[in-house]
Design a protein that fits this description.
222 residues, alpha/beta, three-stranded antiparallel β-sheet, 34% helix, binds adenosine-5'-triphosphate
Length: 222
């Protein structure tokens, strides 16, 4: 991001954003409620376009991406939304496979990979359950599996541990740390300072703080 700003109306929510998420890095994004964390993630996903300045995603100016390029770019980004929504009439296994279908890939040809991923997030026994039958922690793990089914380079997670207990938070964190160790860039928006402390024992995590529309960090990568 280079001197990027964004506002939903005339007032900027975010301004003077100049930072780089290096490939393979692990960042937390913190800040009070309403500071703009979700908005920041949406800029990283090209769901919103900077009002001024530039947001560059995988070397491309997000403001100049056409529809096809946006779709291709998003295939390289896995998003875990704050309120992980699913299609309630489909089993969780099919929900996790949905991005493959949307991208026109033959999900049946990737059955083994899909089952391996479902096992990796610990949901094999729940694969045929419908989303409303899952616990909060199971839903979060399903949302993570769906976010990484396309093998993205960048993972954006918005309060991924917001609705789960501490044990499940640690489990989700371990999955995200493992993905980072596989080379994926990870950005997690969270209020949870204990989670950040726990991550620092596992990966080289940097913390970005959003306040007053500006981002600051202790790390050298700003
Ligand atoms: N679609 C929208 N239209 C107008 N204003 C919005 C919209 N989405 C968010 N906002 C406003 O932008 C500001 C930042 O919202 P955002 O959701 O990015 O904050 P946040 O830091 O993620 O908050 P939280 O921690 O509560 O999830 C808030 O004042 C919010 O009301």
């Amino acid at each position: 991001m280079h001197d990027a700003a964004f506002g939903y109306g005339a007032e900027p929510i975010l301004s003077a954003l100049s930072l780089r998420l290096a490939p393979g890095s692990f960042h937390f994004l913190t800040g009070p409620s309403g500071a703009g964390k979700t908005t920041f993630l949406k800029l990283c996903y090209a769901e919103l376009v900077a009002t001024t300045g530039a947001v560059t995603i995988f070397g491309e100016d997000a403001a100049r991406l056409d529809r096809d390029k946006i779709a291709l770019t998003r295939q390289r980004i896995g998003v875990v939304h704050q309120d992980c929504e699913f299609l309630d009439h489909l089993p969780i296994r099919e929900n996790i496979a949905l991005p493959l279908t949307v991208a026109g890939r033959d999900s049946s040809a990737q059955d083994a990979n899909l089952d391996e991923l479902i096992a990796w997030v610990g949901l094999s026994a729940r694969a045929q359950a419908r989303p409303p039958e899952l616990s909060g922690g199971e839903r979060q793990r399903a949302a993570l599996a769906r976010a990484i089914i396309m093998d993205p380079d960048l993972i954006l997670a918005d309060e991924p541990t917001g609705n789960v207990d501490w044990e499940m938070s640690l489990r989700l964190l371990q999955l995200l740390c493992a993905l980072n160790k596989m080379g994926k860039t990870v950005l997690i928006a969270t209020h949870d300072m204990a989670l950040i402390r726990a991550a620092k024992a596992q990966v080289q995590a940097r913390v970005l703080r959003l306040a007053g529309g500006r981002v600051s960090a202790a790390g050298a990568d700003l």
